[in-house]
Amino acid sequence: MQATQVQPVLTRVSFPALDMLRSERNLVGVHIASALIALTVGIFMGPFQSFHRAPAFVNTFLGQIPVFSYYYQAVTVHGVMLALFFTTLFIVGFSYYVVQRSLQRQIKGIQLAWVAYALMLIGLAMLVFTLANDVQRSAVLYTFYPPMIAPAIFYIGLVLLVVGSWIAAFLVFWTYNAWRKEHPGERVPLAVFAIIVNYLMWFISSLGVAIEVLFMLLPASLGWIQTTDPQMARVLFWFFGHPLVYFWLIPAYVSWYTMLPKQAGGRLFSDPLARMAFIMLLLFSIPVGVHHLYADPGVSQVAKFVHAFLTFTVTVPSFMTAFNIGASLEIASRNNGGRGFWGFIFKQRWNDPVVASQLVGMLLFLAGGVTGLMQASAQINITVHNTSWVPGHFHTTLGGAVTMTFFGILYWLLPLLRGRALFSKKVALGQAFTWLVGMVIFGFTMGEAGLNGAPRRADLANSPYMTPEAGLWLNGAAIGGIILFVSVVLLFINLIGTLFFSTKPVEGEAPIQTKVEVASPAIFERWRLWIAIVVVLCVIAWGPVFVEALDFTNGFTAIPYTTSGAPLR
Amino acid sequence: MHIDRYERYWLMAVVATLGAFFAALVATLVVFGVSLPSPAGRVNPQNLAASEFAEPSVRNIGGNRYEAHIVAKMWQFDAGPEAGSPPTIRVPAGSEVTFYVTSKDILHGFQIQFHTVNMEVVPGQVSQATVKFGRPGVYEIVCNQYCGAGHAVMYGQVIVQ
Description:
A: Cytochrome C Oxidase, Chain A
């Protein structure tokens, strides 16, 4: 065997700082481009939803708010395209790039990577088709809780997306294994370490939603089964749903830990503690999902408090990140001439859109972290559950920390992929700061509206139960929406400008670390051990919840319905 | 593994704060009795006629205590003929009402504005919450879980006299 095997030339390919390998540019480029397509489809639905819910806007325009006619279609498009497709496609592409560059070798099984991409692209096309074509029946939102059932193509598209991401995960593990064999005793670069953590967590947690879709929703949609179990579906969904938010967040942390220190002009404060934070995220991001089920009748109070405790635990790695990144930014600032006790906070490279975008993301994450802890506090959750407080919160985390960091990455990655400089730094800075202002207003006003009784995900324009206070705050949210709309336009000016109109050559280099300077304990890379602990924690924290949700007496009796109120058949 | 002195302090402060927060949650539960919805029974959503939800109603069960059985369906709350549609539940100030809510079709929500009642309403499950209405006023009951085209007009009222 050994004799016949051709030594792969690709492993010895030189990885220049700026020029990209053609294969790399193509593979990463198509993922980023497809992510941007999903972004384009989904993002404009955001501001217009806030207009649709604001009494002042609806009255002024006599209910004729353009862009979409059916509110719940807009919510579904916004959630599915941004939270599922934009994030996943971006993360898969970004992960390929980081792994290849950090390990300085091409991804293993690159043909399979193209198969995975094709699956995800077909999935995207299926979802765009059904959301546009079958407006009422597809409007099941991105949480798609049964007994509301969407057309089968909705679920098949999502299955293709997840299967594609599984293949991508497998290819990264394969590449890491190959690197590991050639580099015994060495530590893998931090960025690759974090991406392995992310894909491990993603794979384990997505098994929950895979079971839900493959054995409950898709068969019901195809008419193979006539009934469903709504409580069990919610349990399965949220087994996956909380790790999902860390799947978005960890790539942002990769940028903060391994790229931002260099971009900001310093170095990372502590590599080993970063690894410890990622391991904690791997262990504790799955056994916390019941905090989304605090208001559910089918989950016991004991499980709710166990998960509340573990939710507080999973904030620890984020507090560690806050310290580590804060210290790294201080190092950068002192290098840049920052003086005094507080001076380092302000002496940052605010005029560099790559740095500024990420700092904006962090500022929003302060609000997101605090509101997240409040929601995790079991009884406080009862005052905000399913109110507009919740989207107020996650627009500062997903829509703040994650999105602005991804945009910050786009501001250097897109020029590299295109081979041209960023179209305009000023427009990019304008985008980042309008996003900060818009999202602060949006998050705050949505929170206040929620506390005044406005539910989330409701076409409130004609609601009989709207309090005047909630109406005022929702008008405020629409003002946030206007500012965010401006921000989105600025983003697209830059994206289109960079892709088609930029003439200057790209400058600078990719902020990728290839060497590990500070050794960390070897135990961090004992993956089998960590996976075993994850499994044990899941069995302890989720086992009783599953057993309780399984309804032995009269389960599986709710029949599937469509969104228009008719039984599916 | 080296951990910086200041980071050690930081982590100790974080753990202490989170510990205090969690202790507060447990105290709220054990000392003040503010609990989360928990399993209160199951019903067959296709045969509610054979269950306690056969005739939805709001009943006085002695003194200032009331019991309400409510069926949520697309897109209304059914609290019996007396309450009407959309239902208006009238109770005197100081009443303690226990709500039992279930769904006949899909997921719904049951939230009473400005009170600690906020539950998912799941077909097959009974959601239960007890609340004391202290101040007179009109409080909206809102379906806060997406339930299709008519979701935003699914509501009721509690009038505390």
